[in-house]
Amino acid sequence: MSADPAAQPIVVLAAVIERDGRFLLARRLPRTHLAGLWEFPGGKCEPGETHEACLARELREELGVDATIGSELVVTEHAYPERIVRLHFRRTDIAGEPVGRLGQELRWVSRRELASLPLPEADATVVALLTHTRAEGPEADPDSMRESDDLSGN
């Protein structure tokens, strides 16, 4: 099955949560799209839902935390064989300790680890931004990555 080029992309919000130089990742559950891969926590927007409300809801449901949704780091669109996703990566602060409420494994990873873990192809641009490497493909447009969004504090 291949994605219909005329299909509307699925809008997904993902939280880039950094604490002490480490980023929070969640492992996708078995029997889900891209099962077993690591990802930034988040999920699909419901019709009529704002990006901020979507991400706050997803983090409450999946991690049991309240979140302060910050600025957008990067937006990327990726066509998988079975669907097209438009991912909005947002800086996010959370209150409390996250727990995998759906049974998903959680992990805090360094920038170096981030570049070596199996993540969805659609995450390549944000991983490149966070690790200061160059992503491959058309979604790696350097103009979409603002220097002001450098999370390293440099």
Can you put this structure into words, describing what you see?
This protein has 154 residues and is of the alpha+beta class. The protein has a single domain, classed as Nucleoside Triphosphate Pyrophosphohydrolase, CATH 3.90.79.10. Helix content is 18%, strand content 32%. It contains three helices and eight strands; from the N terminus they run E-E-E-E-E-H-E-E-E-H-H. It has helices at residues 51-63, 111-116, 124-131; strands spanning 10-16, 18-19, 22-27, 38-39, 42-44, 66-79, 84-95, 106-109. The strands form two sheets. It has a four-stranded mixed β-sheet with strand order 5-1-7-6, with helices on one face. Strands 2, 3, 4 and 8 form a four-stranded antiparallel β-sheet that branches. A hairpin with a 2-residue loop joins strand 2 (18-19) and strand 3 (22-27). It is globular.
